[in-house]
Design a protein that fits this description.
Layout lengths: L13 E4 L3 E4 L3 E2 L15 H13 L4 E3 L8 H10 L7 E6 L1 E2 L7 E2 L3 H15 L4 E6 L8 H13 L3 E7 L3 H8 L6 E5 L8 H10 L2 E5 L9 H10 L3 H12 L12 H9 L7 H8 L3
Parallel strand pairs: 3-4, 4-5, 5-8, 8-9, 9-10, 10-11
Antiparallel strand pairs: 1-2, 6-7
Helix pairs in contact: 1-2, 1-9, 3-4, 7-8
């Protein structure tokens, strides 16, 4: 077993979202509790619910999902498994992508779609208010200001507490910030993909939360990371997560899985402490 076995999500420390929500920095991404191609039901809905319950048992109090996961399936399973929710559990979701079929992700940032998506998420998650609602991806066919304006209206109506952005660049962030406070950014980021390095630094400077998606992908081509994992008796996934947690105090990791064993491995990474030399070596890969 990895050397970090026994740790819980609390060992990752905490991060504040929007100044009034505090969660453990080792969260859970609920994309992979759905079917193949992130489409339809998982092979075993009972197992998917068991993964969610186990995550909460291990101290996870932040779950990230989206209406497009399934579609709808991930949100439904979260409510089935965990409602009524623990007082400290924060569920974030996203809208702005539609699913014509397995493996397809098409943007739809039209105001009418975003309103329908948000209200559907509220119903499926059995929430009166979504703590963090994120625009899943800007839609080139729709002015960003129109999409964000809809989220602002939903926030004014009390249906959204905080607004975040996903898959954005700095220019898009600044345009959104003209209209409303943005509390988080969720972009692809991992030890082998540093395209959002500047946004990670920006989140730290402006007290926004950064949620890296695909945090443990494509690690087999990173020999330095593999060597560090072997030294610690840990897995490559655990070292990647430990590096992300060390990268910035605003980092909120959300590794996802449909397996309890893999979930426990991911959460155990909260207990892994890399040396300054190891962090530097991993930094230098970027």
């Amino acid at each position: 077993m990895p050397a970090t076995t026994g740790a819980t999500a609390a060992d990752a420390g905490t991060v504040d979202i929007g100044g009034d929500i505090t969660v453990n920095r080792l969260g859970f991404g609920a994309m992979r509790i759905t079917g193949r191609g992130i489409w339809g039901d998982p092979p075993d809905r009972n197992q998917a619910r068991a993964v969610l319950r186990r995550a909460v048992e291990l101290g996870v109090n932040f779950i990230d999902t989206a209406d497009s996961y399934g579609p709808n399936v991930s949100e439904e399973l979260i409510a089935e498994a965990l409602h009524p929710y623990p007082d400290d559990l924060v569920i974030a979701t996203k809208g702005g992508l539609v699913r014509p079929g397995p493996g397809r992700w098409d943007p739809d940032g039209r105001p009418e779609h975003l309103r329908e998506a948000c209200e559907g998420s509220l119903q499926r998650l059995r929430l009166d208010q979504i703590p963090l609602y994120q625009l899943h991806r800007p839609d080139r066919a729709v002015p960003l200001e129109d999409s964000i304006g809809t989220l602002v209206a939903l926030k004014d109506e009390g249906k959204i507490r905080h607004i975040g952005l996903s898959n954005v660049n700095e220019d898009q962030l600044r345009r959104a910030q003209v209209l409303t406070p943005i509390v988080s950014i969720q972009n692809r980021y991992n030890p082998g993909d540093r395209k959002s390095d500047g946004l990670v630094d920006l989140c730290e400077q402006e007290e926004m939360t950064f949620l890296p998606w695909a945090p443990i992908q494509n690690l087999d081509r990173l020999p330095t990371l593999i060597d560090i994992a072997e030294h610690h008796g840990a897995t490559a996934h655990q070292v990647a997560l430990a590096w992300l947690l060390a990268r910035s105090e605003t980092m909120l990791t959300i590794p996802g899985t449909g397996s309890i064993d893999h979930l426990e491995e991911n959460v155990a990474a909260a207990g892994l402490r890399l040396t300054p030399e190891e962090i530097t070596a991993l930094d230098d890969m970027g």
